[in-house]
Amino acid sequence: MALFSNTYLVLSILSLLACAANGQLSPTFYNRTCPNLQSIVRSVMAQAVQKESRMAASILRLVFHDCFVNGCDGSILLDDTPTFTGEKNAGPNANSARGFEVIDAIKTQVEAACRATVSCADILALAGREGVALVGGPTWNVPLGRRDARTASQSAANSNLPGPSSSLSTLISMFAAKGLNARDMTVLSGAHTIGQARCTLFRSRIFNEANVNASFAALRKRTCPASGGDGNLAPLDVRSPDRFDNAYYQDLVARQGLLHSDQELFNGGSQDAQVRQYSTDSAQFARDFAAAMVKMGNISPLTGTSGEIRLNCRKIN
Ligand code: HEM
Ligand SMILES: *[C@@H]1O[C@H](CO)[C@@H](O)[C@H](O)[C@H]1NC(C)=O
Ligand SMILES: *[C@@H]1O[C@H](CO)[C@@H](O)[C@H](O)[C@H]1NC(C)=O
User: Among 99, 151, 181, 275, which residue's CB has the most CB atoms within a 10 Å radius?
Assistant: First the structure.
């Protein structure tokens, strides 16, 4: 009993310290200033995912692409203009990043309820969480209080985001550059249990690689031939493409990862044991994924009086 309460005390102090260290993000940041925020985000996301279940995946990917490029500051949401180059046309985002209209729809309702109060970066973080929960995944408390960037960086979007042909060591080092360790990288990659990828990004995997299940490769070649069909989509998780579960890791163990970068997590290297564990323990995956999303959400937020509360997520005030 004494041991338990001491442990509890230490954990409470640690979580207070962690809170202070990440720029004062707090799950209750808007409780007084925008009490309906979370229910607004939930209802707009529920409609969007009902209309198209892939939207849960598309929004979750936006969270990743926001946070990895100069921090979780809503920079990915800014449109290009004749005098401003944003991130939407960077290699990893062009013809690929999607779901911006859903963020706009949430922002419109949030502005109507609480004007000039909630950042686009926080709306995106909450929308990502709701999407995951709506398709069967875990939920978690989202620390809030981020502010929106007044800048964006196409070059950082090109250089800080890993690509589908990345090796395991590149994946590990690109996540390490953001303060995330190899375990975080492997569990966050589990986001690929939902969503789709274009043929052009996995063609060489299904045609040229050795570490791929032959009947899986044959199945994918039906809609991703040796030439043509570059934009044809295939599910990242062959087992349950629209459900947020641990099947992605079962795919990897069966050598049915869609992207080269996916299969790198289970190719005789350092992450094999973690992949095997998640393939049989969905509860552990769900817990670790939720914790890693909070950690990713803490990458260099703007807080206090830095940045701004954008009124329209697509443009600087
Ligand atoms: C580990 C390194 C990662 C690489 C190399 C990677 C790469 C990719 C690629 C190439 C696509 C397909 C894009 C297209 O076809 O246009 C994709 C889709 C996706 N990624 Fe990742 N990704 C990584 C990590 C993550 C993380 C950490 C998350 C979120 C936590 C994430 C979430 C998603 C989702 C949900 C989709 C599907 C989006 C949709 O259907 O609209 N990815 N990723
Ligand atoms: C803050 O708001 C959230 C979401 O509405 C709610 O779950 C939570 O209980 C509130 N917390 C406090 C301390 O009021
Ligand atoms: C490849 O996948 C198919 C379909 O899931 C399975 O029946 C087969 O046993 C797998 N082949 C190998 C060599 O693992």
Answer: 275
Show the domain range for 233: 182-283
* Of 215, 238, 239, 253, best ligand 3 pocket probe by most atoms within 8 Å of the beta carbon: 215
Q: Which amino acid is at 261?
A: S
Note whether 157 and 187 are same-domain residues: no
Q: Ligand 2 within 6 A of 38 CB?
A: yes
- Split into its structural domains, the chain has a count of 2
Residues 148 and 244 occupy one common structural domain: no
Alpha-carbon Rg for the chain, nearest whole angstrom, is 20
Residue 65 catalytic?
yes
Q: Is the CB of 132 under 6 A from ligand 1?
A: no
pLDDT in tens, 10-40: 434 334 434 444 458 999 999 999 999 999 9
Give the separation between CA 112 and CA 119, rounded to whole angstroms. Answer: 14
Amino acid, res. 105:
A
Residue nearest to atom 12 of ligand 2 (CA): 28
